[in-house]
Amino acid sequence: RVSLEEVLQWSQSFEKLLTSKYGPMIYKTYLKTEHSNENIEFWLACEAYKKIMSQRKRISVARKLFTSYIQPRAPNEINIDSPMRKAIIRNIQEPTQSCFDEAQRIIYMHIERDSYPRFLESKFYQKLKHSLQTNGNNSMVN
Known about the structure:
Largest sheet: none
Domain RGS: 13-129
Organism: Calonectris borealis (Cory's shearwater)
Shape: elongated
Order of helices and strands: HHHHHHHHH
Protein name: RGS13 protein
CATH topology: Regulator of G-protein Signalling 4, domain 2
Number of helices: 9
Number of domains: 1
Distance between the termini: 19 Å
């Protein structure tokens, strides 16, 4: 169960939201309401991808990431420029743990500047915070 303290920490930085126990899941739920969850899903998929040790599995997952998020008109296409897309196409021929790092960094910056501030201002986040404050879930109250 998410605590008020955790929810309040999310407003301190996007990093705190991502590294908290429930933050990524709740943030993804919010993004689905505004039909923009592809960026956080790509970022989280990249985090999982970096932990893959098997080269065979890495090749398979790299291709899935490419077809889901990178290729033009992908079902969950992320907003990256053409040179970045071309670099990834070259990189996934022999995928390494870092072949999506630059795209992931760009997407992180998009999220941090765009959807994260909207999340903090949203009724979704405000209601969650308010319900935890009024239910006395935690002694820490704004």
